[in-house]
Specification:
This protein is an alpha/beta fold. The protein has helices at 2-35, 105-111, 121-139, 151-162, 179-196, 200-209, 217-230, 234-246, 253-261, 268-275, 303-312, 330-333, 335-384, and strands at residues 43-51, 54-62, 69-73, 95-100, 144-149, 167-173, 290-295, 318-323.
């Protein structure tokens, strides 16, 4: 009796496992069809690129490689590769680059935590600049559009401050301004949300750790976890991110594991520098177009801080777009609304600059041709005169 039961149980488990594997393969195949780049001028590639002494994963996708390049510098522990289906419409207007920086995704898989005690915002910014240079060289363009998301905005701001010549424009999403104020306000919002939703588990955990600042990164990660869980946008985002990650094409079990665990790691020295970050200390004058596309209901990087910061910024062109109903990751939860803002405000600037560059290049070529013809005629006259 027991043997028969055991065999039946094992057979059931095998059937469930096989069905799950087949279903995942089917979903991956469907996603591959959605993601297929079918244009001759398109590009779809991912590779490790030597960046600042460490091979780092860079993914490039787009229907037309002559479109403006757009690099997203993602938030803490967040690889964007699994979210490619969300950006399929973007790839018709931009050549989209996703970068797994140190501590994230495939770069984390390859290197682990090696050298993590040396990670700083400055180091990551230098990495990002080299990624931008690689993209310009690979796609034969002079500049790129830079989009920072959450923690990525701190890195991206450092990048454009150091090398404005590399970028058409800066776009901040989930803009970080003053981390000390940010954490104080977002903690209060989490407490209020826990009480409103009657989430006693979250409320207890948040009250135990108390209000920030926190000396230890582990304590901050507890606050961050509950802040994310309690954010209104997470109700729809959690099932979506789970599905996209599990069924992402070319995602191995290790990719899936890191997709959910990279966010749990941050080196203590890096954390201390990050908590001291204040965007205003970098200066509020920019020599390139400056944009913030921010969720109007962001409780993790409070919208009011982004508005106050934007008011102090001077730039050749600037705009603040509040995405209606958007939270901290409006770039992911409302990609079409975000794309519309990009197409309205940013893409025309990049296209105009690219057009000017093309005209200047053509003028230089024509000038060279004229000079060459003049030299040839001069040589012919000299030959006729016997010189």
């Amino acid at each position: 009796m027991f043997t028969t039961f055991l065999r039946g149980f094992v057979a059931l488990i095998a059937l469930v496992f096989t069905s799950a594997v087949l279903y995942r393969a089917l979903c991956q195949r469907r996603t591959n069809q959605i993601l297929a780049i079918r244009t001759q001028s398109g590009i779809a590639e991912g590779r490790f690129v030597p960046i600042n002494g460490a091979a780092q994963w860079v993914q490039i996708r787009g229907d037309d490689r002559s479109n403006p390049i757009l690099l997203i510098v993602s938030g803490h522990g967040l690889s964007m590769r699994a979210f490619a289906p969300l950006f399929r419409s973007w790839e018709q207007r931009f050549t989209l680059a996703q970068w797994d920086r140190r501590g994230i995704g495939r770069t984390m898989i390859r290197h682990g935590k090696t050298g993590c005690e040396t990670w700083t915002l400055d180091l990551l910014a230098e990495d990002g600049i080299q990624v931008a240079e690689f993209l310009c060289q690979r796609l034969r363009q002079g500049k790129i559009i830079l989009v920072g998301l959450s923690q990525g905005t701190a890195i991206a701001l450092l990048m454009v401050k150091r090398r404005p010549d590399l970028f058409h424009a800066y776009v901040g999403a989930g803009q970080i301004v003053d981390m000390l104020r940010n954490e104080t306000i977002s903690y209060r919002a989490a407490i209020e949300r826990a009480r409103t939703t009657n989430n006693t588990k979250a409320l207890k955990a948040l009250e135990v750790i108390g209000a920030p600042p926190y000396p230890a990164v582990k304590t901050w990660l507890i606050k961050q976890r509950w802040g994310v869980v309690l954010a209104p946008e997470m109700a729809t985002w959690r099932p979506l991110v789970l599905r996209m990650t599990l069924f992402a094409p070319q995602y191995s079990p290790r990719d899936i594991y890191h997709a959910f665990t990279d966010v749990l790691f941050m080196p203590q020295p890096f954390y201390e520098q990050y908590m001291a970050f204040d965007a205003r200390s970098l200066g509020t004058s920019f020599s390139l177009p400056f944009f913030i596309f921010h969720g109007d209901s962001d409780v993790l990087t409070p919208t009011v801080l982004a508005q106050d910061y934007f008011a102090t910024v001077t730039a050749p062109t600037k705009a603040l777009v509040l995405l209606k109903g958007g939270g901290h990751i409006a770039l992911l939860t409302q990609p079409e609304q975000f794309l519309q803002a990009l197409v309205t405000y940013v893409r025309p600037l990049a296209m105009l600059e690219a057009s000017k560059r093309a005209v200047a290049s053509e003028e230089t070529r024509c000038s060279s041709v004229v000079t060459e013809l003049a030299d040839q005629r001069s040589r012919e006259r000299c030959e006729k005169r016997g010189y």
